[in-house]
Write a structure and sequence with these properties.
The chain is α+β, with helices and mostly antiparallel strands and 178 residues long. It has 3 helices and 8 strands, in the order αββααββββββ. An 8-stranded antiparallel sheet has the order 1-2-3-6-5-4-7-8.
């Protein structure tokens, strides 16, 4: 037992104090990150298109998530292995698209969807947006290099089975400030 300053302090109480302090710092950091994302998303909402994006009887919702977030999942987590695994490096983002029938509000799960990300002066990135399931719901996505703040032009092509026509959504995207 430590008796510095005349107080008896057990090693267990010192470990508990250190653990509590670490948890408080982690909580403060988590709150700071959440507030940063909230304010950043509010800024991005001012310049990015309103959702849903309506096209040819469908409603399209999208999200762009930094790959660093997905790299933070445990190694066995399903999001770590989708689309061949999370790419390494900075400036990689996961484009996620969910599509609904505008009349019935039913989620469209059997479409063929492709995405393109275009940055002025750079090569166009074209990818198939692969089906993925979260909480029993199907969305589509893939990874794109988007290292600058923007603007980016994102093009999403949706073709439903039995329909020869491809519906295209084209919109500008800026990253929220971090």
């Amino acid at each position: 037992m430590n008796t510095s300053h005349g107080n008896a302090v057990s090693p267990n109480s010192r470990r508990q104090a250190v653990t509590i302090a670490a948890l408080r710092r982690a909580r403060a950091l988590a709150i700071g990150i959440a507030l940063g994302f909230t304010f950043g998303m509010a800024q991005a909402a001012a310049v990015n298109p309103d959702q849903p994006i309506r096209l040819d009887g469908m409603e399209l919702f999208y999200g762009v998530i930094p790959a660093e977030i997905l790299r933070g999942h445990p190694s066995g987590h399903e999001e770590r292995s989708m689309h061949g695994g999370v790419p390494h490096g900075k400036g990689v983002y996961h484009l996620i698209v969910s599509v609904f029938d505008s009349k019935t509000s039913t989620r469209i799960t059997d479409a063929v969807i492709t995405g393109s990300v275009i940055e002025v002066g750079m090569a166009t990135q074209n990818r198939k947006l692969e089906a993925m399931t979260f909480g029993g719901n199907v969305s589509f996505g893939n990874y794109f290099a988007m290292s600058n703040p923007g603007p980016y032009e994102i093009v999403v092509n949706v073709r439903r089975p039995g329909n020869l026509k491809t519906a295209t959504a084209r919109f500008q995207y800026w990253h929220p400030r971090r």
